[in-house]
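Protein: Vancomycin resistance protein VanK
Species: Nocardioides cavernae
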Amino acid sequence: MTTSPTLRPISAQEHRDFIAGRSSASFLQTPAWAAVKSEWRAESIGWFRDGAQVGAGLVLYRQLPRVKRYLAYLPEGPVIDWSGDDLEAWLAPMVAHLRRQGAFAVRMGPPVVTRRWSAEQVKAGIADDSVHRLGDVPPLERSREGARVVAQLHELGWQQQSAEGGFSAGQPQFNFQVPLVDADGAPRSEDDVLKGMNQLWRRNIKKADKAGVEVALGERADLKAFHDLYVHTAERDHFTPRPLSYFQTMHDALAAEDPDRIQLWLARHEGDLVAATIAIRVGTHAWYSYGASSTEKRDVRGSNAVQWAMIRHAIAAGAHVYDLRGITETLDADDPHVGLIQFKVGTGGQAVEHAGEWDLPVNRAIYKAFQVYLSRRG
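Structure follows.
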């Protein structure tokens, strides 16, 4: 009979070593992410069985106003074996530890896929007036593992959260990903990935090349140029930009953990910066994290050129997936978010639903007050 794992705090080095020994894990579960989220208190925890480490988690503690009670948050984690039928054996020691640390509630985001849709299905859904949400479209695949995780969490008293909420970091439940390996796990070629893109994407990549757009890796000093363009993008697209210091901290923390973890990409046309992006990679998983583009030279298609450079780099690095991160669930053609979905769908990948974020109230009275506090803030 397999013994249940035990849990204890671990050092950042133990945490790093465990992540390095796995195919991949979310960058939000690396110890370096603690330095990026400095407004949260952070702790690394590890699961052990028969003396060997079998799991790890980055816990971010956010204190409630005026009381020494915390929301304990594990974004896109923890990094454990989610495939079994006894999640309680993993989660019970974690909850007991976090309770001792003063947590009034635990929030986590199991890194488990529940459903997938092809690019063609998403495109057809946008074109169909009777379809309003991705969930209205029968999926390409339903994950048995994902369904098992969701069922167990319900049984254990965890509560599924909506993606909104100003207090939480709120990781996206729906992402768009380009598989870089085939169904048998064999690497896909650049040519194969390019052929999987829609005609507009392939044409725009060619157009950028013909126009003389040059894409290159940047250095830390180039973050200011990226940020200037990012602020311009924020004004155009009506979102609140993060300060330059945030990206400097992110770059320094992730690069210190692994020099290949974070890359800054710059696309220039005749000396003008037309697009810039930040990419992150942990093991076999590569992410497009942040992007910016100029309004003036949109016709040279710098955004397509820089994405293609990032995808090629991910293929060369042996990544299994290129992750364009979050999309909304809406497929209404008149919704302002649909343009971003259509941009990502053009890469020919898949829409992927994860299990989402789940809360376990540890102190129900404080948790209820916390919910009221959130609703008033909203």
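Remarks: The longest strand covers residues 52-63.
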